[in-house]
Amino acid sequence: MFQHASRIKQARKDAGLSQAALAERLGLDRTAVAQWERNNAAGPTASHMGAIALATGVSFEWLATGRGARVIGGDGQEPPAIVMDYIAQSESEERLLVAFRSLSALDQVPVLESLEKQAKAR
């Protein structure tokens, strides 16, 4: 079995999730999870691997490579996989991030500068 396949299956089972339940959390069809767990199938994309790690509570590094602690912070030394300060924490922050990402890089600059100016003024 490909290493990613066995780690995905182990993480899913340890989290108490069926293939269908994991797929639902990821917004995918169950067949995608089943394919990732097959011994002759291609693995998920990096973004799907990250989503699998979050959904199952394992570290991305372990899931992707087999190295490091399996459980996030499992050894007490490993930093969290995600720093919550950099994740949208409200609906308005999420809307802002989605809108900002829809702009071209050139159009993002004045928006960012305006927000930074307003934040410094407070």
Keywords:
single chain, about 120 residues, mainly alpha, about 60% helix
Give the gist of this structure:
The protein is 61% helix and 0% strand. The protein is mainly α and 122 residues long.
Topology:
Elements: H1 3-14, H2 19-26, H3 30-37, H4 46-56, H5 60-65, H6 91-102, H7 105-121
Say which CATH homologous superfamily of the largest domain is assigned: lambda repressor-like DNA-binding domains
Which fold name is given in CATH as the topology of the largest domain? Answer: 434 Repressor (Amino-terminal Domain)
- For the termini, the CA-CA separation is 57 Å
Fraction of residues in helix: 55-70%
Sketch the topology as an H/E string, one letter per element: HHHHHHH
Q: Indicate the CATH architecture of the largest domain.
A: Orthogonal Bundle
Structure, explained:
The chain has 122 residues and is an all-alpha fold. It has two domains: 3-65, 434 Repressor (Amino-terminal Domain), CATH 1.10.260.40; 88-121. It is 61% helix and 0% strand. The protein is built from seven helices and no strands. The model has no long low-confidence stretch (mean pLDDT 83).
